[in-house]
Amino acid sequence: MVTVDAEGAKVTKKNRSNPRSEKHTADAPAVDAFTRSALASDLTWLPDMTAVGKPALTAEAYVEAYLADPGEWYWTTLLLHDPSEIVLKRVLAIIEQGQLPRHEKALGQLGAGPLEDMMSEELLDRLQHWLPFTPAMRHALSQVRMSGEPLVLQQRLKAMLSR
Question: Is the pLDDT score of 143 beyond 50?
Answer without folding.
Answer: yes
